[in-house]
Amino acid sequence: MPATGKLAPERERITEDEIESELQRFRVAVEAVAGNLSETGDRLRASGSEEEAGIFEFHVEMAEDPELVSAVEERVRNLQSPEVAVIAVGEEYATEYGAMDDEYLAARADDVRDVAGQISAQLIGRGASAFEALHTPSVVLAHSLAPSDTARIQKGMALGFVTAEGSRTSHVSIMARSMGIPAVVGVGPSLERILDAETVVVDGGEGYAIADPDADTVAEFERLSGSLAEERAALDEYRNVEASTSGGRRIEVAANLGSASEAEDALEWGAEGVGLFRTEFLFMERDDLPSEDEQYEAYSAVARAFGEKPVIVRTLDVGGDKDLPGVDQADEENPFLGWRGIRMSLDTPELFKPQLRAILRAAANGNLKVMFPMVADVGELEAAKTMLQECRKELESEGVKIGEVKTGVMIETPAAAVCAAELAEESAFFSIGTNDLVQYTLAADRGNERLRWLQNADHPAVLALIRRTCDAASAAGIQVGVCGEAAGEPEMIPKLVELGVTELSMAAPQIPRAKKVVSEL
Ligand code: PEP
Ligand code: MG
User: Fold this and answer.
1) Annotated catalytic, 171?
2) Which residues lie closer than 8 Å to 288 by C-beta, 6 or more apart?
3) How many degrees, rounded to 5, is the angle at CA 421 between CA 416 and CA 426?
């Protein structure tokens, strides 16, 4: 059962077979860190900060120092993990520097610690991390899990998650739900108490975990998981139902996808389309950026799998708790209020345009729609549509086959909900992202475990914004879905339908139950 802390490398040793790949991983991490440092140095020099630029240039030299590199490599050959080895070697260097009489050199101790820490962090968080290296099915204990960590775990290797930070709508919960993995998130400091356990059982439904359970508890958990399986089987008859209320309102029930590989499973669960394809995970499960062609393949695979059924592809939504390897994202005081979603895409046409081109091309293979995240202003929607139009023209003049794509907007900022009537004039559909809409409306960070009671779409302020959005959509004659976690919650579904929602999109395993709830309204 691996456990991960914030920056504490959890993997001390490697095996003989791993030496070569770990050496390679270490070299890649050094290169990445040196690259980032030298970019920062160049930027500072360009802005006239000569002295600061010099520090970063010195850090680049340290990161690439041949002696430091070979000392780490030797430790790796002696089966120490590179993330631990680089810290140890950095510490040796720091001690040597610290003991020097020369004040300038003594001050270099902190620099070398800093650089070694960055390389280690790169190895833990960004490289082929311990998550990727997980080869035994295990319960994963972590301080926090970024979506990029979760995306790196191989299928079948995570039996459950327990994290100190997080909430129902943080991305670790969302991903766990769509992977069908039980998760208990936001346990706070009590995580410490189970770090040394041999065995952990996780009840994702009730939200608790027990360390080293006795035989009776294990038997009870086995019984529980049996009855869960029975409950699921009883819902099977709803998989292929086209859900309508008794009053005759047809509600489409669709799936949220994080990758193309989830498409077949989603269809099996009875998805009538994809209400939200979170494309950022395609970007986050690797160290470099996917090319236009690679994106085209991924979007086409989903489009083909769903045939005539609609697939809503959401453009890149990084920022917040989702970092993008390969892109320089400056640290922000408030990342959820920062350079996120459409804001970042509009600022980086070199990222955005290949994605739009790939979507337009893939639309020739199915029924794709495109949706923009984090819109707060009509101008953003107009700018995004202009870029889409530019891409369309470029592809046409290149003679490349493209399809029709309707454009829609996520309503997930209070501003978008308030301006829904204006946005509706420019949109073919809306999809309400309740996860963010709740956090921004109630000013409650969606990942903060202390604010769990506020992370709830069933709040008069949020319901009022949903009503306003539905009314604007209905007046403009466009569809309005919900793709936040509230869409799959049996107690929220009747309220959302009553407010005027026409589509619900959720983690695929929740689809049969949602169809049952709608059919009984
Ligand atoms: C939302 O905010 O409700 C949503 C569906 O988007 P994400 O969870 O990916 O931010
Ligand atoms: Mg969102």
Assistant:
1) yes
2) 325, 326
3) 85
Average pLDDT over residues 122-133: 64
CB atoms within 10 A of CB 323: 19
DSSP state of 126: I
Phi and psi (nearest 5°) for 278?
-80, 95
Q: Indicate the residue type of 241.
A: V
Pairing verdict, β 200-203 and 208-211: antiparallel
**Residue 431: CB partners within 8 Å, gap ≥ 6?**
275, 276, 312, 371, 408, 409, 410, 411, 480, 481, 482, 483, 503, 505
Neighbours of 422 (CB within 10 A): 14
pLDDT by residue (tens digit) across 345-381?
999 999 999 999 999 999 999 999 999 999 999 999 9
Choose, from 391, 419, 470, 483, the residue flagged as catalytic.
Answer: 483
Q: What is the pLDDT of residue 152?
A: 64
Residue count (the chain)? 521
Cα of 318 vs centre of ligand 2, distance in Å, is 10
If you write DSSP's letter for every residue of 167-181 in order, what string do you get? -TTSHHHHHHHHHT-
Q: To which H or E segment does residue 202 belong?
A: strand 200-203
185: buried, middle or exposed (CB in 10 Å: 19+, 13-18, 0-12)? buried
Pairing of strands 274-278, 252-257: parallel
Q: 178 is written with which tokens?
A: 């769509």
Which residues, in sequence order, are bridge partners of residue 479? 429
Q: State yes or no: is 59 an active-site residue.
A: no
Q: Is 216 exposed, middle or buried (0-12, 13-18, 19+ CB in 10 A)?
A: exposed
As for ligand 1, residues whose beta carbon falls within 6 Å of it are: 174, 276, 278, 317, 412, 433-436, 483-484
